[in-house]
Design goal:
Layout lengths: L1 H16 L7 H19 L3 H11 L2 H14 L11 H8 L19 E3 L16 E3 H16 L9 H13 L28 E3 L13 E6 L5 E6 L3 E6 L7 E6 L7 E4 L5 E5 L6 E5 L4 E5 L13 E3 L5 E5 L4 E6 L5 E6 L4 E6 L5 E6 L3 E6 L5 E6 L6 E6 L5 E6 L4 E5 H6 L7 E3 L8 E4 L5 E5 L7 E5 L4 E2 L14 E6 L5 E6 L6 E4 L6
Antiparallel strand pairs: 1-2, 3-30, 4-5, 5-6, 6-7, 8-9, 9-10, 10-11, 12-13, 13-14, 14-15, 16-17, 17-18, 18-19, 20-21, 21-22, 22-23, 24-25, 25-26, 26-27, 28-29, 29-30
């Protein structure tokens, strides 16, 4: 207790001896004022410091705007350190090009590509482009893609092009077409038939419900109903409904001792005219009444047999092919000959013009005659280019083309207008895809396809695209023989189906998928 008390007294005595100076209030006020001034000076940021903060901490767009505003106002900026305006603009310009990370030396070599391959034929614009460089081929493929897409798609455009495109669109007149201002897929399918590869599907034989026991000589589609007719050496004419799946038989008639050489519908589709090989007797089958009418004699006809004929487009007359170059015009009402025409040599084929006003005749000597049906006068005559022996002829439904077949397998396609005006017209194209005699020719109703065939060889049938005059590469293309030897060809009224009559008694049927209707 005594020691504690002693220490307490000593502490109080020591505290009493320490003297604390009195504070100087004026000096303290002066120091505070100086510190306040220093803090105020530090709080004022330099303009360059602010710009640096924008640059470092983001707000790049604001930075560019501030730099532009400061320059317009004449103020000092970070870019005003003795640099020119061109240098300043170059600094602000965004880099738009990108350099390649790696380059192949072989890319610079001019390597040529063979364009005759069937997968590249569609990329050529003429037959002269047999070879093409890789760069040109790539550009051609880009052009074809852009043409199919209706222009360059948005995902393929660079940022600069998109920006320029937006700028151009903003400058356009607001009263422009609204369709061009909307986004979406405006690509539509073209109505014209493309060349190269045809979309085709093999169906059940047209006469599968009743195949012929002998060679077929005729196949023809009904002009208005979804029906196909077949006829042949088995002395019968059969009608089938065409659905591509079962093709059920509708009716079949038998003509005693009358192997059918040719049968053809009338224009209205109510009758069938049938001829044979050895006599001048021919039959008319009236489908509406179910009667078979034999025509034993024709007044004014002095032929020993009636074999080849054509029905006029107006349905009022028959054009019978006689011997020694004669053509006879027979009226359907009275069944008598009203006029005759004659060529030099023998007739190889006959075809009406689309309106029935003219008749085209091909002779076995390779000469083509054009006749006026009303006056029976020869309007023009010319030699088929390079032809030694003519075999067939066909005229397009649109009145534009005339095809002439020869024994050498060459099919020359002419312009009907040029054939009328010139004595020595040149063919638009010489089709040389057959190596045997071109015995059958047929244009489809839209005049976009020319079917050619030869009965002298198996699978000798081709489909030619019009107006490019190129053969579709995928017809015929099957794992086994399907066509065999074709004797007749025909298309349905709207080109939806194609069929032919072969030597096996069958009528192969094909669906042309480009055309929507029968």
């Amino acid at each position: 207790m005594d020691k504690v008390g002693i220490h307490s007294r000593k502490g109080r005595e020591t505290m009493k001896r320490v003297s604390v100076p009195e504070p100087d209030y004026e000096e303290e006020v002066l120091k505070r004022h100086k510190n306040a001034q220093a803090v105020t000076v530090l709080g004022v940021e330099d303009a360059s410091v602010k710009l640096l903060e924008y640059l470092v901490f983001g707000a790049e767009d604001d930075l560019v705007e501030r730099l532009v505003e400061d320059r317009e106002d004449g103020g000092a900026t970070l870019l005003d350190d003795g640099e020119s305006d061109v240098e300043n603009e170059a600094r602000l310009k965004v880099q738009t090009t990108r350099t390649a990370v790696w380059e192949d030396e072989d890319d610079d070599l001019e390597e040529e590509v063979d364009m005759t391959h069937r997968f590249r034929r569609d990329l050529t614009k003429s037959d002269a482009e047999a070879k093409m460089s890789k760069q040109k081929l790539q550009q051609r493929m880009k052009e074809q893609f852009q043409k199919a897409m209706g222009g360059m798609p948005s995902w393929a455009e660079t940022k600069v092009k998109k920006k320029n495109k937006k700028k151009d669109d903003s400058d356009d007149d607001e009263d422009g077409d609204d369709l061009m201002r909307k986004t979406g897929n405006f690509v539509g399918s073209s109505d014209s038939l493309p060349k190269g590869i045809i979309r085709i599907k093999k169906c059940l034989h047209a006469n599968n419900d009743r195949p012929s026991e002998d060679r077929l000589t005729t196949v023809q589609f009904h002009p208005s109903a979804q029906v196909v007719m077949t006829a042949g050496l088995d002395q019968s004419i059969s009608l089938f409904q065409v659905d591509g799946k079962t093709n059920p038989k509708i009716q079949s008639i038998h003509l005693e001792k009358f192997p059918v050489h040719k049968a053809q519908f009338s224009v209205d589709g109510e009758q069938v005219v049938a001829t044979s090989f050895r006599n001048k007797l021919f039959y008319i089958y009236d489908m509406m009444e179910g009667k078979v009418i034999p025509v034993h004699t024709v007044r004014g006809l002095r032929e020993q047999r009636v074999k080849e004929f054509e029905v006029s487009p107006d349905g009022e007359s028959l054009l019978l092919t006689g011997t020694s170059g004669y053509l006879h015009v027979l009226t359907m009402k009275t069944k008598e000959v009203v006029n005759s025409m004659k060529i030099n040599g023998n007739i190889a084929g006959v075809a009406f013009s689309h309106d029935g006003s003219k008749v085209f005749t091909n002779s076995e000597e390779g000469e083509v005659y054009i006749w006026d049906m009303r006056s029976s006068k020869c309007l023009n005559r010319f030699t088929d280019d390079g032809c030694v022996s003519g075999t067939s002829i066909a005229a397009s439904k649109n009145g534009q083309y005339l095809a002439c077949g020869s024994a050498a397998g060459v099919v020359n396609v002419y312009s009907q207008e040029e054939c009328m005006r010139q004595n020595n017209p040149k063919p638009l194209k010489a089709i040389m895809n057959l190596v045997t005699s071109a015995t059958s020719l047929c244009f489809n109703p839209t005049s976009e396809i020319l079917a050619i065939a030869s009965r002298a060889d198996d699978e000798a049938a081709r489909l030619v695209h019009i107006p490019s005059f190129t053969v579709f590469s995928n017809f015929p293309m099957f794992q086994r023989k399907t066509i065999y030897r074709a004797h007749r060809l025909d298309f349905s009224p709207n080109s939806g189906f194609f069929s032919l009559a072969n030597n096996k008694g069958r009528a192969p049927l094909f669906r042309l998928l480009h055309y929507k209707h029968f």
